[in-house]
Design a protein that fits this description.
- The structure is a homodimer of 131-residue chains.
- Chain A has 131 residues and is mostly helical.
- Chain A has two domains: 3-75, Winged helix-like DNA-binding domain superfamily/Winged helix DNA-binding domain (Arc Repressor Mutant, subunit A), CATH 1.10.10.10; 76-123, no CATH class.
- The first copy, chain A, is 56% helix and 11% strand.
- Chain A has helices spanning 3-13, 16-27, 35-42, 46-58, 77-94, 96-107, and strands spanning 33-34, 62-67, 70-75.
- Chain A has a three-stranded antiparallel beta sheet with strand order 1-3-2.
- In chain A, strand 2 (62-67) and strand 3 form a beta hairpin.
- Chains A and B meet through helix 1, helix 2, helix 5 and helix 6 of A and helix 1, helix 2, helix 5 and helix 6 of B.
- The structure holds a DNA duplex (30 and 30 nucleotides).
DNA sequence: GGGGCGTTTCCATATTTCGGGAAATATCGA
DNA sequence: TCGATATTTCCCGAAATATGGAAACGCCCC
């Protein structure tokens, strides 16, 4: 992820309604939620929510697709992953000692103390025998 | 981390100068950097930077301590970790399937499952995959 | 104590953002 | 075609934010 995208994502998440929306949509994965349902759940007017959804979509954090007369939104988990990578690439890039506790927070597992400075978009090895 | 703290953190990171400042300070860990040096590195006026540093400090992302007549700032890595945890607790909380790729992005190493069910002669994934 | 340096605070202004009301667009059902 | 529902777009005023200049504060050295 590049800096402008990260800025957009942070900006999008820095507003209470938008943050709540994003979290709600993550919890609603993978089905997603129609805009009206989000508005009802968050007690926000639809036009206001629409503007917030537009910001989130512009930041790439959510995506909406029309289903009949409703528009169903769902979180873009890949974008979240990219954002996490962006946040950690600075420290994990050259400092595995700093990276380890960060990974710890995410996984709850002490994580091996060796982060390679590549945190973009490449799943290392979990392909052959994953679940 | 609680929502208001996360909002403050996102708001703090949603401004170009502040994001650059935070990243710079993370790279400068653990020594930190004096305010003047940050301002010079980012080509920002000191009063402007001071305001931004105040926002970052208010969000708990950086901390400054006086050293003689300079004030040396350094990133709060624990806060960053808390922020990562906040971002992932929604999906990781109940959905390990979503959490795994997220942790992956962070460390380059899959969380717990996914890598080696029972083969012990296999080196643990992270072998060599630099793009 | 006086002068100099680093940093912050105060003030003023331009820009952006937020939320509400009303209207417009798109889809469905009859 | 008509009405109803879901969602967005447009426009507005209010509030927050960013930045610059000038001044103030704290600390060091002489």
């Amino acid at each position: 992820m590049e800096t402008p995208h990260a800025l957009a994502a942070f900006g999008a998440l820095s507003q209470p309604t938008r943050l709540a929306t994003f979290r709600l949509l993550i919890q609603a994965l993978p089905a997603g939620l129609p805009a009206g349902e989000i508005a009802a759940a968050l007690a926000v007017r639809q036009n206001t929510l629409s503007a917030h959804l537009a910001v989130l979509a512009e930041a790439g954090l959510v995506r909406g697709e029309r289903q009949g007369r409703t528009i169903r939104y769902h979180a873009e988990i890949d974008r979240l992953r990219a954002l996490l990578g962006f946040l950690t690439q600075d420290c994990c890039g050259g400092r595995p000692d700093l990276c380890a506790p960060l990974a710890d927070a995410l996984t709850g597992v002490p994580a091996r103390p060796a982060c390679e400075p590549n945190t973009e978009t490449e799943p290392p090895c979990r392909s052959s025998n994953a679940t």
